Every structure is written in C-alpha cells, then in structure tokens.
Amino acid sequence: MSYRKISADLKLAAIKLYEQHLLDLDDILDCVGFSERTFWRIQKQYNETGHVEPPISTSRGRPRKLHFDDITYLLALVRQCPDWFLDELLDLLDTNRFIAVHYTTIHQELERAGISLKKLQIIAKERDEDLRADFIRQMGQYSADEMGFLDEFSKDERTIQRRRGRAKRGKRASMRGLLTLDGIVASTVVEGSMTREKFLHFLEHGVV
C-alpha cells in the first residue's frame, strides 16, 4: 500500500467523532479511509501533545551531544587553562557536567567555536623582567657597530631546515664565532666540546 498524506482536518474530525461517541470506530474508519492502527497512532499523538500532527523539527543533521551550557563550560576551561589535553577536558565534562562524549566531539566543538591548537611560548622560570630591563638600559649606551655577539654556530650552504648530518662515529667538533655588522670577523673550531680554557684562549688570541 502506497503512502498517502492525511490532512490534519481529517485526523481531527476522526478524533472528535470518536470522543463524542457520534459514530462507531468502524464507521469512522470507513468515512476517513485510513486503518485502525493509524487512528490509534493519531489519537496517541493528540492525547500527548494536543495536536494531530507531529511537531516540525527546525534542526538539521545529527543532534548535537553538547548543548549550549556544556560548550560554554568547555570554552571557560580552555580560557582558564589553554594547555588542557583533550582527554583531560573529557574527564572534566564527565565529572562536572555528567556528560560522556568522545574526545573527537570536544575537538570538533572547539573548532566550531574558533579555538585552534597553537604552539605555546614557554617562559623560563628564572627569567627576571627587572634584570632584562636593566640589561637593555646598559646595552642602549652602545651603538650597533660597537657590539659583537659570540656563541656556538653552524653553517650549511644548502638549507637552514636540516637538523642532522653524518660523520664518523666518535668524531665531534665545536665552533665559535664573533658576529658583528660586518659578519663573522673571528671564529675557531676545536675537536670535541668547547671547554672554559679553550674558550678563554680564543677570546685572548682570536678576538681581543
């Protein structure tokens, strides 16, 4: 039997005829032209909602597992502590909101809210802003051509992206260079690690 649309007026008329005992159920079904099973389904809908038609859903797609209050709580957690892991957020939702969801659901909701994963800037505990400001004031008395910077360095003509190279096992060298506005003006290479004695020797004979 093919599906056919039954108007709301016809459904309501059948319900009223039955409730007011104006006709027997068999006569009502003969008049309206639908089955007894359909009649009882319509009556159940009418008794529960007061309407013979089911409510029209305005939502599209799969129902969301996290509601507005849950997402608000999730965003508050991220603002308070940006480095939560997804499994930690999952446990907090389960403990405080009594919601069990998969961690991918949390990731998707954060993305919908415009929250993305970023690399955090790690600040050393021993960093002192007052000492930094004092150092900047002291260095401000020198011009750029009076300053040189000395540190360990490496050089690669091909690309700055390479992080590893090959050498014979057990062979290692350390390089130090003095960088100024004119480029590297002094440098040294020593086999093995740069010790304090080797570094002072380079300063005395290679830099000064």
Key descriptive features of the protein:
single chain, 208 residues, 8 helices, 44% helix, Homeodomain-like_sf
Task: Note down, in words, how this protein is organized.
By secondary structure, the protein is mainly α. Among the domains are: 8-49, no CATH class; 68-112; 147-154 and 172-208, no CATH class. It is built from 8 helices and 3 strands. It has helices at residues 8-19, 25-32, 36-49, 68-80, 86-97, 103-112, 129-139, 196-207, and strands spanning 149-152, 173-180, 183-191. It has a 3-stranded antiparallel beta sheet with strand order 1-2-3, covered by helices on one side. Helix 1 runs antiparallel to helix 2. It is rod-shaped and about 120 Å long. The termini are far apart. Residues 158-162 have low confidence and may be disordered.
In short:
Among the domains are: 8-49, no CATH class; 68-112; 147-154 and 172-208, no CATH class.
Mean pLDDT: 79
Strand content: 5-15%
Order of helices and strands: HHHHHHHEEEH
What is the oligomer described by this structure?
A: single chain
Cα-based radius of gyration, to the nearest Å? 39 Å
User: Uncertain spans, ≥5 residues at pLDDT below 50?
Assistant: 158-162
Number of strands: 3
Contiguous helical run count = 8
Distance between the termini: 102 Å
Secondary-structure class: mainly alpha
Cα shape: rod-shaped
How helix-rich are the residues, as a percent range?
Answer: 40-55%
Q: What is the makeup of the main sheet?
A: 3 strands, antiparallel
